[in-house]
Amino acid sequence: MAPAPTSLASRPDTLHLALPCELLAASDARRQVRAFLKEQGLATEDLAAWELAVGEALNNAVQHAVGTGRSQPVVLDMSCTARDAEARITDHAEAFTWPDALTLPPDDHEHGRGLFLIQAMVHDLDYQSGRTGNTLILRRTHAAPLTPTQGSRLQQAESTLEIMTEELASCYETLSAIFRFSGELGTPESSASFADRLLDHLLTITDADWFLCRLSEPEAGQLRVFVASGASRVPPVIEVEDERGPASVEGRAAATLQDVWLNPEQLPAPDDPIHGMGAMQYGLVHPVYHAEQLVGVLTLGRGTATAPFTAAHANLIHLFTEFLAVHLSNAQRQRERIQVGKVNRDLEIARTIQLSLLPARLPALPHIQTAGHSESAHEVGGDFFDSIPLGPDTFLLTIADVMGKGVASALVASLLRSSVRARADLAVDPGHLLEDVNRILYEDLDRMEVFITVQCLLVDTGRGVLRLANAGHCPMLAATRAGNDVTEVAPDGFPLGVESAAKFETTTLALNTYGCLLLYTDGVTETRNADGEWFGQARLREWFGQAVRHAPSAEALKSQLNAALRTFHPSGEMHDDRTFLVLRHHP
Amino acid sequence: MKMHITPKTLTVSGLTELNAANAAVVRDETRDHLEEGHMTIEMDLSEVTFLDSSGLGVLISLHKTMCVRKGRVRLLNPSDTAQQILELTRLHRLFEIVPAQ
Q1: Which member of B54, B58, B85 has the closest CB to residue A59?
Q2: What is the ipTM of this complex?
Q3: Is the distance from CB of A99 to CB of A36 less than 8 angstroms?
């Protein structure tokens, strides 16, 4: 960044004289004071006043010097600001007390007017007597404003003040622009159009003719055009550097993270892509970075100007690009948050669907206990079970597995659940029920290329009957009351969605024969251990046979099966959906 | 400093400053050129750029000299600077001030 000009306005201008204790020297010094003040730009009236006051004071100093004082110099120090001037005269005269009230002597007195005249010419006066000498301090506010002569130091100080005022004004402008633009943060406007407006504003306040902003693509080592003013003919993507180093001024700025200043003596090479932006006499290529990461490169150019950007302009450019970098970085984070938010919302919806799929209550009739477990590997899946009461002693259990995972599967599962409930009147014959449900859903399932495996079990404690229908689902495991033998029951039937007019077999069993039934989905049998081995049908059957020997409650069996599966697949890794139903019958 | 002598009047002109450094010289020179018949000393102050208390002292001294012979001192066309100081010290009443013709 160009350094700020040194400030001279705070240091008033000064004159220092040490003159021999003689009247001629005093006159000479008095003339020098007038010349000095004239250079500062004092008006005639003020010049005359000072000349008289200083003249009288110096004369006094000379004329009243005593003893060794006569061989010591009289010292004059004069300082001048835009508002007033001050003179300090140090002499070695005899000690003297300045009279409180000064009056003029009678007209015919030749002497005695000196002090009166001094006091008449100045606004402030102080006289200090000391052991080694006396100091007279005179101060006078300028009656007329200063008009410094060309090249005078006060004039330089004034023009410095002008520059600083300009800089301050541009800082206020920047601040107000930033306030204005920051009010627009968070509006739905795209980053590109925000950047475009911000940089367009920057063009105006820096007196530039065009801008080109590229964003960094660090993995590819490239800079891609983001926004540009006017009709630009620049390549959309450029390399930051090739084997020999940066090949363009933009690349150089990006590679070194430093500004590149361009002027008529230091223009970019003829093959530099920046020339596609148009005429450039002066330019500034500024790397845009945020939190020490390169975000991009901004180039501002002046085509016809005769002067480079000032330090104030450079400041503005830095401030604006910093602001832009923060905005872009925020926009990026916001996008990511929205994305995560979207995902979270999806998951929320899925969770709601999942909960709605499961029955609020499982049936608990006399002699019948049921317990169910449904767990999805992801937030939601296509497994579910349902229980529909059909009368005081009858109910229908359904267990199903929709192919696939996620929200789509859950929605299809929901569809199936509703369809089964809608045709619960057919539940007395689960095979017919499935036929009808298949017919209803076939078109949709076919279109979506989804199929569903389902098992429907009617439990009629009044008639003491179990009726089961199966659509391609894993066989139900049934343990007899007598010897706890386990049989697999799987009536014929394709999964739903395979054939439009599919037929489903119904198997009828005597309820009293059985003590425990297990309905499950293949998530249970396909649970894997560390070696990749499946739990499998055979192992499940064996486990079931063992578990029911101790006549545990349905709830206990449920816990035991979960424990067995967890032991088999202990790691925290994602497993498949896991759903099963346990029914315990004890007359 | 220039002297112009007529039978009745001594005119002193060419003064640019009347200050402590040259006060004695101006006074003595003027007195030296004063002749018996002179009743008027004219001081041309038109070019005076600086007049301090010592300069005023000279003018008063010459005034006293002329008073003795019942003559007078006239100040010709004082510069602004000179006029201001004469007024400030109220001495403009003491002398006859003659503005430019």
Answers
A1: B54
A2: 0.90
A3: no
